[in-house]
Amino acid sequence: MSPRTLTRRTRACLGISPIEFVHRLGVSAAAQLLTTTRQPVDEVAAAVGYADPAAFRRIYRRHTGESPSFTRSRQRL
Prior knowledge:
The protein has five helices and no strands. By secondary structure, it is mainly α.
């Protein structure tokens, strides 16, 4: 399937781009790890497929409205 067709079909079914879908999956998995493990944020980023921890933090904040470390600290309260 061509990239263009994949994008069109994903948008038609989900209303978002394929990369946005992948980011949402990664952020969801990261949130689960942040609240259930004590792994450092950089290790969580790597575990969900982000080689650049800074990029992971930006994407995580864009999707959740909070930093990964805030998500973790909020769960400890």
